[in-house]
Amino acid sequence: MAEQNKESAKPLPEITPVTQPFWEAAKDKRLVLQRCNSCGSFVWCPRPYCSECGSNQLVWTPVSGRGTVYSFTVIREVVGRGARGFEKEIPYVVAWIDLEEGPRFVSNVVQCPIDEVEIGMPVETVFEETAPGIFLPKFKPRSSI
Ligand SMILES: [Zn+2]
Q1: Ramachandran assignment for 87, one of left (phi > 0), alpha (psi -120 to 50 degrees), beta (any other)
Q2: pLDDT tens track for 98-127
Q3: 113-122 contacts: CB < 8 A, separation 24 or more?
Q4: How far is the CA of 49 from the centre of ligand 1 (A)?
Q5: Which pLDDT tens digit goes with each residue over 29-41?
Q6: How far does the centroid of ligand 1 lie from the alpha carbon of residue 143, in Å?
Q7: Which of 5, 25, 84, 139 has the greatest number of C-beta atoms within 10 Å?
Q8: Would you give the end-to-end CA distance of the chain in angstroms?
Q9: Burial of 92 (C-beta count, 10 Å sphere; 0-12/13-18/19+)
Q10: Given a cut of 70, is residue 2 above it in pLDDT?
Q11: 15 C-alpha vs ligand 1 centroid, how far in Å?
């Protein structure tokens, strides 16, 4: 029975010492990214060293949560046991979001009919509690630019 529940559940993020500040901020509905104190680059995904200059002087920094849809796909079918947890949400949108600060973020576009999602659409972050204490940043259409 427990195995069946495990198969029908969506996977949860693995919270590590490196990613923990991101998830703690998400609980407060704040989007934060690492920013390098040496070269000023924003770094995404979370890591111990700057992907541009190799510095370990990374500081968690609040960002706007605003971006635009770079590209997207509509998921209409799930395949495999590992994806069963997503079945009840079909159809849904998986998108690359270009954040105003630069990094490209993979997430869902929500609170929008799927046939209204388009490339270049302005979006902003909204946090959804996917499991107790786990808030995922997703994106909804931006009401004003
Ligand atoms: Zn750097």
Answers
A1: alpha
A2: 999 999 999 999 999 999 999 999 999 999
A3: 114/74, 116/141, 117/69, 117/72, 117/74, 117/93, 118/69, 119/69, 119/70, 119/71, 119/72, 120/68, 120/69, 121/68, 121/69, 122/66, 122/67, 122/68
A4: 8
A5: 999 999 999 999 9
A6: 34
A7: 139
A8: 49
A9: middle
A10: no
A11: 23
For 10, which DSSP code? Answer: P
Distance 64 CA to ligand 1 centre (A): 20
Cα 57 to middle of ligand 1, angstroms: 8
Give 64-145's CATH code, choosing from 3.30.420.40, 2.60.40.1080, 3.20.20.70, 2.40.50.840.
Answer: 2.40.50.840
The pTM for the full model equals 0.88
How many whole angstroms from 47 Cα to the centroid of ligand 1?
A: 12
Ligand 1: distance of its center to the CA of 10 in Å? 34
Indicate where the chain has its CATH 2.40.50.840 domain(s).
64-145
**Distance of CA 26 from the midpoint of ligand 1 (Å):** 24
